[in-house]
Specification:
The chain is an alpha+beta fold and 81 residues long. Helix content is 20%, strand content 26%. It starts with a strand and ends in a 14-residue tail after the last helix.
């Protein structure tokens, strides 16, 4: 079991994650490069931005890490219910 998950091109330590947004980012700024992505807030006020698949994979990795499961399920859980 790894204490890391991959978000975009980064290996993020699970223990640094403070929260994960349930809704995609929308600010309306023309220059925004994060529109439609999910914020994963880290310690120290840092953030990484994930697509829906990466967000779901991160949530599954945290749940597995917390419960001590070694393998992730084949299908990501539906976190929007």
């Amino acid at each position: 079991m790894s204490v890391f998950c991959k978000v975009d091109d980064k290996h993020v330590p699970l223990y640094r994650i403070m929260w994960i947004s349930a809704l995609p980012h929308f600010c309306g700024d023309e220059d925004c490069q994060c529109e439609g992505k999910y914020e994963i807030r880290l310690e120290q006020g840092e953030s990484v931005w994930a697509n829906a698949e990466e967000r779901d994979g991160t949530l599954t990795a945290i749940a597995n890490w917390q419960t001590g499961l070694d393998a992730a399920p084949d299908e990501p859980e539906d976190w929007d219910e």
